Amino acid sequence: MDIDLITLAYDFAKTAHQGQKRLSGEDYISHPLATAQTLAELKMDTASIIAGLLHDICEETPYTLEDIDKNFGREVRNLVDGLIKCKKIQYRGLERYMENVRKMFVAMAQDLRVIIIKCADRLNNLKTLSSLPAEKQKRIALESLEIYAPIAHRLGMAELAKQLEDTVFPHLYPEEYQKLVELVKSYYHKQKAIINQTKKILEAEFKKAGLNIISIHGRAKHLWSLYKKLTLNGNDITKIYDLMALRIIVENKSDCYLVLGLIHQLWRPLKGRIKDYIAQPKPNDYQSLHTTVFGEGGNIVEIQIRTLQMHEEAEYGIAAHWHYKEKGVKMVDKKLEWVKELTRWQKELAQNQKYLDSLKLDILKNRIFVFTPKGDVIDLPEDSTPIDFAYHIHTDIGNHCVGALVNDEIAPLNTKLKSGDMVKILVDKNRQYPSEDWLSFIKTRVAYSKIKSALRGKPGYVTRILKLVKLK
Ligand code: MN
């Protein structure tokens, strides 16, 4: 981590946001700072932390992407650019909005760091949620629960995902939240005492055995995941054994098994609750040993044992991978695994969505995502042109198209569009037929067949084609 550069970025952001306030009344800089702090806790790389500090500069201050490029380089500039593109999505009805956000996330996944920074930004924004109008509060809370948190889970960032969930829980389900808090209060208290007692006994045992332990601590189950588990278990809190669990972090894999052995010599394990996720990792690569034992006084305790690296990957997911990458530790084939995971996710998503057909054959990398002036996301095949875009919106817009603005600038109709471009089609009602030339550069079937069928109505077109055929 380059502390000097991060300090420079902080000073830059602080000066740029000078005098601005958040809705909550705090100085504006507190928001980018908190975002960067979350990213640092996730052990993200220097570029991401700097992008976190600068992410609101372009919209809130006179500084531009070029300024960021000049001062902090292309990598940071591109990250901030990705974040700005995410914000172009506008809200016009919940269902449509959610679909746009999902598509956008997939498009931005070309650099997964954009998603991680976006999640950190969102987590911090949620803390000032109460200062927004009720309607907007609900929408942002729902979006965080249904889109941001699942994506964070998908990317293995359990800790961030759970923080997002627990922050919006009281906003979305205030009564259920209140009830749950009441319910767990006494249980947590009792369980905490048991965990502390267990911890003391184990610490002494490990010392006797000469085992070096990195950390041994209790962890309380997050409220939202508890709520979901309770709903599945007929609301019987006595059946939830990991309300508070004991977590033991050791130096290496063989120590994990040594610790498990020691524990089982002390206390009898519950049948069917010993899980070796080290030998058989979960589908999301989670690794750990789990056991539940009848501890002191017959109290049931869940214990999780793992190495530090397993722990960091479980908590921070792909964020941890950047950490190891920067530290120079080789993460063999891990990168490929994220891509696999993302592609899998992409497929599942497609099955739930109406746009199944458009995504079935082309994988992510062959699609681009462009915006309408109203902020809807349109996905098209790579190398699509404004004409493809126009026909995708509506046949009439295609047929009457006389020009295009790409990112507010006049662009030739055969321009190859890029992800994130905002496209506005200029139409002229007096234009009656599409141009035959368009057929030579368009990329989509839809545009092709619509142009063909419009041309068939053009006086003289059919006879001219017939003549051409006869000449051959
Ligand atoms: Mn922000």
Describe it.
- This protein is α+β, with helices and mostly antiparallel strands and 472 residues long.
- Helix 9 runs antiparallel to helix 10.
- The structure holds manganese (II) ion.
- The site of manganese (II) ion (MN) has 4 residues, from loops.
Please name the defining characteristics of this protein.
472 residues, binds manganese (II) ion, 21 helices, 6-stranded mixed β-sheet, alpha+beta, 11 strands, single chain, elongated, 3-stranded antiparallel β-sheet, 56% helix
Question: What topology emerges from the helices and strands here?
Answer:
Layout: H1 3-16, H2 30-41, H3 46-54, H4 57-60, H5 65-72, H6 74-87, H7 94-108, H8 112-126, H9 134-154, H10 158-172, H11 174-209, E1 213-220, H12 223-232, E2 244-250, H13 253-266, E3 268-269, E4 275-276, E5 289-294, E6 300-307, H14 308-316, H15 318-326, H16 334-352, H17 356-360, E7 367-371, E8 377-381, H18 386-393, H19 395-399, E9 401-406, E10 409-411, E11 423-427, H20 445-456, H21 461-471
The chain binds manganese (II) ion.
